[in-house]
Amino acid sequence: AHRNGGRGPDEVPTPKSLSGLGARVIVGDGNSLTQGSGAAAGSAYPDQLRALFYGQDTGVVNLGVGGKTTAQLTSDFAGKVQPYFIPGAELVFFEAVNSIGGGSTAAQELALQKTYVAQARAAGWRVRVCTAPPTANASAATIDAFNVLLRADHAWADAFTDLAACPELTPAGDVANPTYYFDTIHLKAAGYGVLAAKLYADL
After folding, report:
1. Which of 15, 17, 31, 46 would you label with 8, given CA atoms 20 to 30 Å apart?
2. Long-range CB contacts (within 8 A, 24+) of 78-82
């Protein structure tokens, strides 16, 4: 059962306060697309997801860090993400842009994400993996190929959300749409709102 009241939609819980949130904790980990680059503070998808869950006994934490690759996020996991764990906590993860931009193939990125998820699940998390929103940079074709692989092979995670299939963000040519995109990779507040709404429906 959910209760009304509690933390406001813009308040970010800290590790020490997580146990007081109640029934549910959701953590977003990833790169600048989780951090919310391209939009005003408080507009990232975890922040908007927190607002959607307001009054439902749910805390949402944004741990996105711009520029991080999947390998780096895996290395940072124990010190950055694990302190937020409580039994039943859920982790939303997506990355691809930075790893693939750094030279990883689609298959290599899938393998890297499997390593990240295996570590998180071993630590007790329920993990949701997501496709990466379309881009128009030099890595776009490889990111699309990674998304195809992930759609076909994600049983190693607990849940899956196809963010790249959100109609407002597809096809990749819509990266030029100034309503949702800040540049060829990052989103505006409306774009991050699309991600938040899709995740809210799936969570």
Report:
1. 31
2. 78/123, 80/29, 81/27, 81/29, 81/120, 81/125, 82/123
Torsions phi, psi of 139, nearest 5? Answer: -95, 5
Exposed/middle/buried for residue 132 (C-beta within 10 Å: 0-12, 13-18, 19+): buried
Instruction: Judge contact between 143 and 135, C-beta under 8 A.
Output: yes
**The pairing of beta strand 159-161 with beta strand 126-130:** parallel
CA distance 22 to 2: 9
Question: Is the torsion defined by CA of 146, 149, 150, 156 positive or negative?
Answer: negative
Per-position DSSP letters for 47-69, written without gaps between them: HHHHHHTTTSSEEEEE---TT--
Q: Which residue has the tokens 């071993």?
A: 122
Give yes or no for residue 38 having a pLDDT over 70. yes
Is the model's pLDDT at 115 over the cut of 60? yes
Nearest to 109 by CA among 139, 159, 146: 146
pTM of this prediction exceeds 0.85: yes
